[in-house]
Design brief:
The complex is a heterotrimer of chains A (387), B (294) and C (242). Chain A has 13 helices and 15 strands. With 387 residues, chain A is of the alpha/beta class. In chain A, the strands form three sheets. Chain A has a seven-stranded mixed β-sheet, covered by helices on one side. A five-stranded parallel β-sheet of chain A has the order 2-1-3-4-5, with helices on both faces. With 294 residues, chain B is mainly alpha-helical. Chain B has one domain. Chain B is built from eleven helices and four strands. In chain B, α1 crosses α6, α1 crosses α9 and α2 packs antiparallel against α3. Chain B is globular. The chains are: A alpha/beta (387), B mainly alpha (294), C alpha/beta (242). At the B-C interface, α6 and α7 of B face α2 and α3 of C.
């Protein structure tokens, strides 16, 4: 009985993975690899990234490919497992990929990245935002996403600009993102003359923030602003309970809350300001991306991770084109010197940045269930906390 | 003092959700000896049913009813399709079956609906707070406490007054002899699953009202909490599951509220250490019975 | 051996295996309406396996079970109970954390439809007054003898056409055993048909009309109780004569 049922389950699982859109490349043309978590806890990030990558690939091939050669992508699922991330990376290397996209989370990204590093194949994480990631792996590893310290600095600059003196930060040590971004914010906020009055901690998925909210209500001096990088399900739970307790202190979030859920929260989310990788203002490249996305997938885009996946594929194409070669070291050197690559969210520069790109940070405000553009920011590098 | 009472209410509200979940888990365990790790996914199903119902313009009250009904039916279907064929197999087989069911559901949600969370808007009146004797009690908290109390009372009446309810308690003590009473084993097991689905559905609505969205993996953490609560209260004991749920919530809320700042990073470890210490002192759980520990 | 159309229960060629072990190797017996028939045998002779197999609690490897002319071979225990045969299991196995009232209520679960559960309950409380006294007490707090009475009363709540009693004297003090057996005889006087499994040979043959002796999974000996009691062959059968 048992053996029969596990076989059935394995068959169903294999069918589902195949249905999840895994394409197979072949030996001619240029092959890019994607070792992502398309099932498991990373699926909410790597699935949309892949959608963006595939849209970019369509456009690149429609325009004649890279160096006149068609581009293919080989996609392998790490099942969000770190050990599997290394295995899958090696498989991709064996299949002859010239560059590799790795998972959104730092641990599997490092696991895949060190394999690519050893094979002298450049790689980049789709959306890991920890600024120390490239240095942790080596010269063949790049970042793609807006770094946490950059977002923290932009939010701090905004907060000081609003005249906020005292800040409360809420962090979770469960992931580097939820821990470090608020800490970078706090560091920048204090460097700009503000004071962090208290630091709260939560566990991701804890649902109940009543204890933290009760504590915030009792703070003296009470904070002028609350910053957190909590995202759903934690952020909605937190802000509902915060507002329910009658605390109307302004809240600053980061790109993790750039999700339809936030805009469906109603009154409690009104006025929340958050940073992300770009705002789709009329006529912008991001707006064009959103339209192309809806055309290809038949549904509106609901996360910025599609756009940053698209961006990364465009960066890889630009690096290979600039290298004029599919040789790993040549692509790496070209990548490291890219300047002002035009992508969906604006432009990206790698030159002189130690493989952590400079890109625009947009601030958005939730207003009446819609997003309002506060502005685009690129803070002075002296204001960005060291990683 | 006020802050103490406030935190007490906070713990009571969270404990209600834990208790409902733990009770559902314990109900199936008591009858089958199975810890159903797909239990949390019933909450996820409630979430998706609500999401689609709201999307279809059915309105929140109907969406809630549909969400709970969906979890109930899914639990019964889960038993019929996945667990009945392995009912006589050993515990490890049943446990693995439940993990497989859970994994399959995760993949179905991720590939057929979306890996991204889906928003479940909650009307603003639910987000406010009411003033009860100087205490600010959230409407959702109040709903949670009320729903838990009503459901526990109704369930207790069912288990004490109806033949099927008595049969379920009897089955928890001695399944073969229960069948010798002419009680249909399938009916008892299906009822246990149906009730566990109902409880998961109600807990799911309360949980979703707080978190505001449904995503494919949302059931994992709650089922883990419920499992801890069930063990803490005493495996196989229904009352124990309820007590365990409240005990876990009280430990969590009071640690988060009153631990000194430097200790906060260790709050989860302290919670689990306290649970382990309690189990060392009372291996049968808070109100479990020694002979009932399987 | 009795014969004729009066057989209420007819078991033939019963075989039960637990893996490679053959517990019952082709045993059979008949019980007529109104009889007390006893099934005797040493420890491990397969008496409980026999009853459990007849009830459908353990699967049959071979054999046939006919209840009042209806073939019920291989039916689930709950179905067997609904058809009118019940088992009062070895070791009493009352529901310890249920009250006496609840134990009896669940015993009468099959009589809810027929609407006579209340009548049967009144009858049982009348016959076992101690259960009326302990009505709201947890069954686990009763004495061994009281638990045995509860177990028998619970079985009788389904108004069975035949009741299988498995070791009702097990672990009870001698005077309590006497009380239990008086009640068994009283049940027969009220029209019950009983298949009694017992280790206490003398006591069992005293109350029974007929007896069977099981040895190594087979019927080694059978006959009217008085003859078995007089012959002394029961003792030899116990020693494992095939």
């Amino acid at each position: 009985m048992f053996r029969a049922s596990t076989t059935r389950i394995a068959a169903v699982a294999a069918g589902l993975v195949a249905a999840g859109g895994v394409a197979q490349g072949d030996s001619h043309g240029i092959t890019i690899g994607y070792a992502g978590g398309f099932t498991g806890y990373l699926a909410p990030y790597d699935q949309p990234s892949l959608n963006g990558v595939q849209l970019a690939l369509d456009q690149i091939n429609a325009a004649g490919g890279i160096m006149g050669m068609p581009v293919e992508i080989v996609v392998k699922d790490t099942r969000s497992d770190t050990a599997q991330a290394a295995v899958v990376a090696q498989e991709l290397i064996d299949e002859g990929v010239v560059a590799m996209i790795v998972s959104c989370d730092v641990d599997p990204a490092v696991a895949s990245g060190v394999m690519a590093q050893a094979a002298e194949i450049p790689s980049a994480s789709s959306c890991a935002s920890t600024p120390t990631l490239p240095a942790a792996v080596g010269p063949y590893m790049f970042s793609n996403y807006t770094a946490d310290n950059l977002q923290g600095a932009v939010l701090a600059e905004y907060a000081r600009g609003q005249g906020y003196e005292n800040a409360y930060i809420l962090l979770s040590r469960d992931t580097p993102y939820t821990e470090k971004l608020p800490e970078y914010f706090g560091e920048a906020f204090e460097a700009m003359g503000g004071t962090v009055v208290a630091v709260g901690e939560y566990t991701m998925g804890q649902q109940d923030f009543s204890a933290e909210v009760t504590n915030i209500g009792g703070l003296d001096p009470s904070p002028d602003v609350i910053q957190t990088s909590a995202y759903e399900p934690d952020f909605p739970a937190f802000i509902k309970q915060l507002r329910a307790a009658g605390i109307d202190t302004p809240v600053l979030g980061s790109d993790g809350i750039d999700s339809p859920t936030t805009f469906a929260l109603g009154d409690v989310a009104e006025g929340v300001v958050f940073s992300n990788a770009g705002f789709a203002s009329p006529g912008s490249a991001l707006e064009a991306f959103e339209m192309a996305y809806e055309e290809k997938y038949g549904m509106p885009n609901d996360t910025v991770f599609t756009a940053t996946g698209y961006d990364l594929m465009m960066v890889i194409a630009a690096a290979i084109e600039a290298a004029g070669s599919t040789d790993g070291p040549a692509i790496r050197d070209a990548w490291d010197n890219l300047e002002n690559v035009q992508v969906a969210t604006g432009s990206i520069t790698y030159k002189d940045q130690n493989r952590v790109p400079v890109r625009v940070v947009a601030l958005n405000q939730v207003s009446g269930g819609e997003r309002v553009h506060v502005g685009d920011f690129s803070p002075d590098s002296s204001m960005i906390p060291a990683p | 003092m006020d802050i103490l009472i406030q935190q007490f209410v906070n713990a009571l509200s969270l404990g209600g959700t834990y208790a409902l979940l733990a009770l559902g888990l314990a109900m199936v365990f008591s009858v089958l000896g199975l810890i159903n790790f797909a239990h949390g996914d019933l909450m996820t199903l409630t979430g998706y049913a609500m999401f689609f119902a709201i999307g279809a313009g059915l309105g929140l009250p109907l969406a809630i009813v549909l969400g709970i009904a969906c979890a109930t039916l899914a639990a019964v279907a889960m038993e019929r399709v996945a667990f009945r064929p392995v009912r006589d197999a050993n515990t490890a087989t049943m446990l693995l079956t439940s993990l497989a069911v859970s994994t399959i559901l995760h993949m179905l949600f991720q590939n057929l609906i979306s890996a991204r969370p889906r928003a479940i808007p909650v009307p603003s009146w639910m987000i406010g707070a009411v003033d009860v004797g100087g205490l600010a009690i959230g409407v959702i908290q109040l709903m949670s406490i009320t729903a838990t109390a009503l459901l526990l009372i109704a369930l207790s009446v069912f288990l004490r007054r109806s033949i099927l309810g008595i049969a379920m308690r009897a089955a928890a003590l001695d399944f073969p002899v229960t069948r010798l009473m002419g009680i249909n084993a399938n009916a008892v097991v299906a009822t246990a699953f149906g009730l566990s689905g109902l409880l998961a559905g109600v807990a799911g609505v309360l949980w979703l009202a707080q978190r505001g969205s449904v995503d494919p993996l949302m059931g994992f953490l709650p089922v883990l909490k419920a499992f801890i609560a069930v063990v803490l209260g005493g495996l196989g004991s229904l009352a124990g599951a309820v007590v365990g749920g409240f005990a876990l919530a009280f430990i969590e809320v009071f640690l988060r509220a009153f631990l000194p700042d430097g200790w906060l990073p260790f709050r989860e470890s302290i919670t689990l250490t306290l649970v382990i210490v309690l189990l060392l002192v009372r291996p049968e759980g808070l109100i479990g019975r020694r002979e009932n520990v399987r | 051996m009795s014969s004729g159309p009066e057989h209420l229960l007819d078991v033939a060629g019963l075989e039960v295996r637990y893996g490679a072990i053959e517990a019952i190797r082709g045993a059979g017996l008949e019980v007529c309406k109104g009889e007390i028939v006893t099934l005797l045998g040493a420890n491990g002779a397969g008496k409980s396996s026999f009853l459990n197999a007849v009830m459908g609690l353990v699967p049959l490897a071979a054999g046939r079970v006919v209840l009042d002319g209806e073939d019920i071979t291989g039916e689930a225990p709950e179905t067997v109970v609904r058809r009118g045969m019940t088992l009062c299991p070895e070791g009493r196995r009352v529901f310890a954390n249920l009250t006496v009232r609840e134990n009896l209520a669940i015993g009468g679960a099959t009589r809810r439809r027929t609407g006579d559960a209340a009548t049967i309950l009144a009858d049982m409380l009348d016959r076992f007054p101690v259960l009326a006294e302990r009505h709201d007490q947890m069954a686990g707090t009763l004495s061994g003898g009281e638990q045995q009475m509860l177990a028998i009363a619970r079985a009788m709540m389904s108004a069975p056409r035949i009741v299988l009693l498995d070791e009702p004297s097990l672990g009870l003090a001698p005077q309590v055993v006497d009380t239990i057996f008086e009640m068994i005889v009283a049940l027969q006087h009220h029209g019950a048909t009983i298949l009694l499994v017992e280790q206490n040979v003398d006591l069992a043959l005293d109350v029974a009309d007929r007896g069977y002796v099981l040895a190594s999974g087979r019927v080694a000996l059978s006959g009217p109780a008085s003859e078995l009691q007089a012959s002394g062959e029961v003792e030899r059968a116990y020693m494992g004569r095939d």
